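tool=predict chain=A
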Amino acid sequence: MALRFETARFEAAYGTAEQLPPSTTPEVAFAGRSNVGKSSLINKLCRRKALARTSSQPGKTANINFYEADGIRLIDLPGYGYAKVSGKERQRWADLIAGYFDQERSFNLVVALVDTRHNAQELDVQMLDFLREAQIPFVIAFTKADKLSRAKADQQAASLCKQFSIPRAQTVVTSATKNVGIDELRKRIEEACE
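tool=predict ok
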């Protein structure tokens, strides 16, 4: 099924799990560390410049943002691991992410974003372990591949797959800046929502 990603519109932002509306359509959630490029990737997937707010300052997505696109929901979860916010605010983000996953929802796919340039980070390992244990389908989007040569990005992706114990087929190397891997990621989302 070909989804019209360009029809995406912002629905609402929620600051606590209790506020989240019931799950009534297929849902694709985007999870990752602060500053991994979630908003940029969502904008590129939806062929829009400013659907999701981007910022050079990490930690800007402090709520769960819901977008609707052609009958499916795209869920932008707050980034985790950003050190320059208060412990209380970090805990609220963690509760919000956990609260989302604790609900009865249509978890069609989680796009777990991981920065291609770095080795496996503990918080990413924890997120992927959680998704595996909860049996929630996921794909890893290795982001910011444009910051490395193509060969280096592929080498780094292979290394991260080993570190995460994830088959390469469950990953997509992406760059929102250079449009790398975006069509493949759209296809994965479409297949998950059929």
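Strands lie at 9-14, 27-32, 64-69, 72-76, 107-115, 138-143, 171-173. The CA atoms of residues 15 and 143 lie 26 Å apart.
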